[in-house]
Amino acid sequence: MKTLLMGAVGALALIGAAQAAEMKFALIPKGMDNPYFDLSRDGCMAEAKKLGVTCIYKGPATHEPATEVQIMQDFVTQGVDGIAISVADADSVTGVIKQARDANIPVITFDADAPNSARQAYIGTDNKAMGRELGQQLIKAHPKAGTFATQSGGPAAQNLNERLAGLYEVLKGAGWTEVKGSPAFCNDDAALAAQQLTDFYTANPDISAIIPVGGWALFAPKAYQNFVNTVREKRKDMPLVMPDTLPVELQTLKDGYADVLVGQRPYEMGEKAMDALLKLKKGEKVDPVTIVGLDVVTKDNVDKFLK
């Protein structure tokens, strides 16, 4: 009898493992050309391997909300076991998220939320807190109130709008003034982002700071370095406070082209997305909001992050 029971338990375990191995979860970034999301992909793939499930990483080739919606629609049609999406336009995804939930497909958001949708959880940064941190780091480097410009990705991105709100709260609360034409929107295009920083400086040569809420320009290293060199030929007093801590950005700081980085943890978002989707698929509960931390990097601790 004991042998039979052990055999039955073993068989059930094998069935459970086989079922898990058949599960396919989709991770949808805002744009496949954004290196930031490569880390979310890597975290997703690594955690999926540990869990014995499959992570399918697919999004628009570049930032395009309508294409993102279509890709999610395709995953719903295919009947994947769960979807995690970084939302480019919160309003545009509401309908397709409801379709997925009506089809009993678990849906969570990561990195960028759609809080008024039927999504079951959000995993990512406290974006308003990140905006505040960017502002506080700028004031630490430049205590006297001055003029500033900022830059965002897409105007409909919930996460970026929250960052802008946090940044404005700190800077405008401290007496800083935003210049005309700010914020600029680069649609997650690195080359355009670097050009917009240069344009802000050209139009406002006495500006106190240019502080984006995303690190897009740093993914066009040569163009970004040209911008910094142009500024520093005439100005030594403009602090360069930039978002995110990907390897290329860390090296940029180490090379002297940034003073402070305020970084997110996209790899951890990818890991936690797989954990949450598997739990939801099994009928288990997950926290409705999971906040991953921020990292503040300067020349004093950059080597630690580059290891």
Write the layout of secondary structure elements.
Layout: H1 2-22, E1 24-28, H2 35-51, E2 54-57, H3 65-78, E3 82-85, H4 90-102, E4 107-110, E5 121-124, H5 127-141, E6 147-149, E7 151-152, H6 158-173, E8 177-178, E9 184-185, H7 190-203, E10 209-210, H8 221-234, E11 241-243, H9 247-254, E12 260-263, H10 266-281, E13 289-291, E14 295-297, H11 302-306
Parallel strand pairs: 1-2, 1-3, 3-4, 4-5, 5-13, 6-8, 6-10, 7-9, 11-12
Antiparallel strand pairs: 12-14
Describe this structure in words.
The chain contains eleven helices and 14 strands. The strands form four sheets. It has a six-stranded parallel β-sheet with strand order 2-1-3-4-5-13, with helices on both faces. The protein has a three-stranded parallel β-sheet with strand order 8-6-10, with helices on one face. The chain has two domains: 2-123 and 266-291, 3-Layer(aba) Sandwich (Rossmann fold), CATH 3.40.50.2300; 127-263, Rossmann fold. Strand 3 (82-85), helix 4 (90-102) and strand 4 form a beta-alpha-beta unit. It starts with a helix and ends with a helix. The protein has helices spanning 2-22, 35-51, 65-78, 90-102, 127-141, 158-173, 190-203, 221-234, 247-254, 266-281, 302-306, and strands spanning 24-28, 54-57, 82-85, 107-110, 121-124, 147-149, 151-152, 177-178, 184-185, 209-210, 241-243, 260-263, 289-291, 295-297. By secondary structure, the protein is α/β, with parallel strands linked by helices. The protein is elongated and about 60 Å long.
